[in-house]
Amino acid sequence: MAVAAKNVAVPVWRMTLAKWAYNKSYFPSLGMMRDDCLYETDVVKEAIKRLPNNVYDARQFRMSRAIYLSCNKDTLPKDEWTKIEEDELYLQPYIAEVERERDIKREWNKQ
Amino acid sequence: MSAKFTSRSVLQAFKRHVSARANTARQESTDAAGLQVSKLPNGVTVASLDSTTSPVARVVLVANVGPRFEESDQLGITHCLRVSVDQANKSKTAFELTRHLTQIGANLSCTATRENLMYSLDCLKDNLDIGVSCLVSAATQQAFKPWEIQDCQQRIVFEAAVVEQQPEARLTEMLHQVAYRDTLGRSLYAPSHMFGKYSSEMLMEYVNKNFTAERMAVIGLGIGHKQLTRYLKTMSVPGSGSNTAKAAKYSGGEVRHEIGGDTAYAAIVTEGLGSQNKDAVALSVLQCVMGCGPTIKWSNGSAASKIIQAAGQATDQPFATSCINTTYSDSGLFGFYAVAQASQMGQVLKAVLSEFGSVTKNGVADQDVQKAKMQVKACAAMMSENGSNVIQNIAQQLLSEGTVQSQEEFFRLVDSVSKQDVVNVAKKVINGKPSMAAIGNLSTTPHLDELM
After folding, report:
1. The pTM is what?
2. Cβ–Cβ contacts within 10 Å for residue B158, how many?
3. Pairing assessment for the beta strands B435-440 and B263-271 based on DSSP bridges
4. Do B93 and A104 touch (CB under 8 A)?
5. Residue of B nearest to A105 (CA)
6. Is this prediction's ipTM beyond 0.85?
7. Which residues of B fall below an 8 Å CB-CB distance to A?
8. How many Cβ pairs within 8 Å bridge chains A and B?
9. Which residues of A touch B (CB under 8 A)?
10. What is the pLDDT of residues A33-80, one digit of tens each?
11. Do A104 and B95 touch (CB under 8 A)?
12. How far is B132 from chain A (nearest CA, A)?
């Protein structure tokens, strides 16, 4: 589940607010997940390169469908929108690893 | 940091002995206490040979994992394992591993023989804590990240292409393949149909199946036993369960590969003896009786080698020939290889073969046996001058035999070989089923049935 990523107890009011904000956003109506919409910095680009093939293909499909819908100023039917429970932050582990590697490099190059 | 690739060298039988006691101050392996062997709690054997003369320490982690253990859908996986030694592992990223090693001025390399994979570290004694942690993480905590495995494939393609350019290397691979088919016949290098096919899961499964505690050993040279054991306390073994090796079955046969050119390369062998066989030393002496190439650089060697003399009488064009004696733990190959101009190959092969045949019929001369014994001892002694040879020998002996033979014991064994022993082992080995491999311009190279 997207919100409870760190296994911390989240207050109910916070969850409600998160759900409301998610459903008000544009990207779920195009069938995208949050990690599809990340701005492609160097770190994110490297993380995308490391995705396994099936995850990468699914991402590409969602983005292509979203671009098509956006061109036609259309959205998916309401029942096909991405729900907050189904949204998976699939890119985060790879981003964390890339950032960790960069930190290590930076530490070494300081000396 | 390099991944060396070596196939079993011609004088393999000589590379098996270590000096446990000091003879000269120049030698690295010097200590009155000798080799100490023990077992870690996780089941891995640890051996160490302390030395006070050199500031360099060498640690080798050897695993009884080689092309011999590959299944038919895993061909070349040892090659992939070997080139991925410098990739990220569970405790260090590739960058960290490289920087740690360069910071302490150490060398980490991975050498593969057909039976063993040896991860070797050379560093100064003061830096052993970092060095050994790098070694252990590279050898036992491989992570095989999928994107890094893809980068390794380039390296595999390059190494295979280099081997493709060397007829001698290809000859050795072909010879083993025709002699043993599977187990020891598997190539050290990845076949072209497997380029790009090695996946992270495949490699992880291979490691978990084969890197078991009883098939691994860590040997230290120039480091005390307690110290080495302390550094290895946190080592964990990736594999579990026991896995017995399939016995190597010699089949024999013939394989030829025509590639044109001026020269032809051929090797003819019969089944030799494994290193645990009691006649293995006599076979080494026989190898030197037959001749292992010139002893004076750039000379034609006919005074030193019987087979060079025989071949020299059959042709006046350039050629090279040497007796092969390759020893593995339970089997071996004994015979010769010859390189000659394409038109002369038939004469050269027939001449050398008749020389081998005459040994079984007419025996050997006393002075040939004496000369051969001296050569065997000298070669072993010279090999043991180099620390990395010493430690690789200890590693291979420890894994295949469980004990390590000292140089004095080896010299005693060589001295006790009699002329009759040599003739007996010659009759036993040379009259076996032959295997032949040939590559090059084979227009006049006879087939095996035409030669026998």
Report:
1. 0.85
2. 11
3. antiparallel
4. yes
5. B95
6. no
7. 93, 95-96, 99, 145-147
8. 15
9. 49-50, 52, 100-101, 104-105, 108
10. 999 999 999 999 999 999 999 999 999 999 999 999 999 999 999 999
11. yes
12. 20
What HEC string does chain B produce? CCCCECCCCCCHHHHHCECCCCCCCCCCCCCCCCCEEEECCCCCEEEEECCCCCCEEEEEEEECCCHHHCCCCCCCHHHHHHHHHHCCECCCCHHHHHHHHHHHCCEEEEEECCCCEEEEEEEEHHHHHHHHHHHHHHHHCECCCHHHHHHHHHHHHHHHHHHHCCHHHHHHHHHHHHHHCCHHHCCCCCCHHHCCCCCHHHHHHHHHHHCCHHHEEEEEECCCHHHHHHHCCCCCCCCCCCCCCCCCCCCCEEEEEECCCCEEEEEEEEECCCCCCCCHHHHHHHHHHHCCCCCCCCCCCCCCCHHHHHHHHHCCCCEEEEEEEEECCCCEEEEEEEEEEHHHHHHHHHHHHHHHHHHHHHCCCHHHHHHHHHHHHHHHHHHCCCHHHHHHHHHHHHHHCCCCCEHHHHHHHHHCCCHHHHHHHHHHHHCCCCEEEEEECCCCCCCHHHHC
* Angstrom distances, CA of residue B400 to CA of B116, B217, B237, B441: 10, 11, 19, 39
Q: Token pair for residue A100?
A: 């960790």
User: What whole-number percentage of chain B has pLDDT above 90?
Assistant: 61
For residue A74, what are its two tokens?
């259309």
Give the residue on B whose Cα is nearest the Cα of A50.
Answer: B147
Q: With an 8 Å Cβ cutoff, are B96 and A50 in contact?
A: no
Q: In chain A, which residue's Cα lies nearest the Cα of B93?
A: A101
How far does chain B reach from its first CA to its final CA, in angstroms? 47
User: What's the CA gap between B190 and B209, in Å, rounded?
Assistant: 20
* Residue in chain A nearest B103 by alpha carbon: A108
d(CA A5, nearest CA chain B) in Å: 23
